[in-house]
Amino acid sequence: MQPLAFSADPPSQPDEVLSEGQIITVDGRRFTVRVSGRRKRLGLTVERDGSLTLRAPEGCSAERAESFARGSRRWIEGKVRLQEQHRPRNMVRRFAEGEIFRYLGRDHRLSLVDAPAAPVRMLAGELVLDRTTAADTTAGRRALLDWYCRVGLRWAGGRTQPWAGRMGVPEPAVEVRDIGRRWGVYRPLADSAPGRVALHWAVFQFPPPLIDYVIAHELAHIKVSGHGTDYWRLLRRAIPEASDLKAELDEMGKYVWLGDTES
Ligand SMILES: [Zn+2]
Fold first, then answer.
1. Residue 226 Cα, ligand 1 centroid: separation in angstroms?
2. Alpha-carbon distance 211 to 198, whole Å?
3. One domain, residues 148 and 177
């Protein structure tokens, strides 16, 4: 009899068949088992949070799964390492030399200089921040957010008219600011003027196709409120891949920097 007192997951019995939701441990790694009748082969997934899922066909023995997991050790290690490199770094930011900030889907390194008159600038691909401003987290954050609002408004200004023309809606006024948990919001005016679109400053960290999606999404609301069939028909006419972009935005949105700072 093996001493199993410290193991939550005793080794499988030779004839044990995997069951849905079961946890198996191989070489110190825990795998959550997902059984599918449609599968023929075993498969592994490294989830976003680093947890491991082992996908197995029905009737697969625990022994076979364990040997598969053991044989995939290299693959898992590579995946985990890759995921750590790409781990969302953008949830919390410091205003320190070398910190990465995103603009239009690209990474820009932060460089600290003495420039109190122009606290934030984009210079040769680097985001340049005044050193004294950076030293005060509140001031640094305000300067950065102001910069996103400013450059974002300029960028969006060049896109709104073409999109409005394409969608056959009057061009609204656009503003960029912090609008909380939404990427964009459209407010009609009482006198049937085109109204006002507000975009979240954080949107300008996304790649341009996603920003275009946010803009077009709000412009479509000039014609149709709500997200019913008519709304999507209008939006898809302008952006056929709207559903894919929405899914991408939902995913990226979970990890984008929203102004949180590390003190
Ligand atoms: Zn909407």
1. 6
2. 12
3. yes
Residue 136 lies in a domain: yes
Per residue in 170-228, pLDDT (tens digit) is 999 999 999 988 999 999 887 667 799 999 999 999 999 999 999 999 999 999 989 99
The number of folded domains in the chain is 2
Give the neighbor-by-neighbor strand order of the sheet with 173-177.
173-177, 196-200, 184-187
Same domain for 152 and 74, yes or no, is no
Please give the pLDDT value at position 1: 41
If you measure from the C-alpha of residue 85 to the centroid of ligand 1, how many angstroms do you get, rounded to a whole number? 34
- Would you say 218 and 200 are in contact if contact means Cβ atoms under 8 Å apart? no
Give the pair of three-digit tokens for residue 230.
């008519």
Ligand 1 centroid distance, CA of 44 (Å): 36
Residue 201 · residue 178 · CB < 8 Å = yes
Under DSSP, the state recorded for 144 is H
Identify whether 127 is part of a domain. yes
List the domain range (segments joined by +) for residue 75.
23-85
Rounded to the nearest angstrom, the distance between the alpha carbon of 170 and the centre of ligand 1 is 17
Task: Tell whether pTM > 0.70.
Answer: no
Say if residues 237 and 214 touch (Cβ distance below 8 Å): no
Same domain, 63 and 174: no
The CA 201 to ligand 1 mean position distance, Å, reads 17
Domain membership flag for residue 61: yes
* 43 and 173 together in one domain: no
Q: Based on the domain organization, do 70 and 114 belong to the same domain? A: no
**How far is the centre of ligand 1, averaged over its atoms, from the C-alpha of 185 (Å)?**
7
Residues 40, 167 within the same domain: no
Q: What percent of the chain has pLDDT over 70?
A: 90
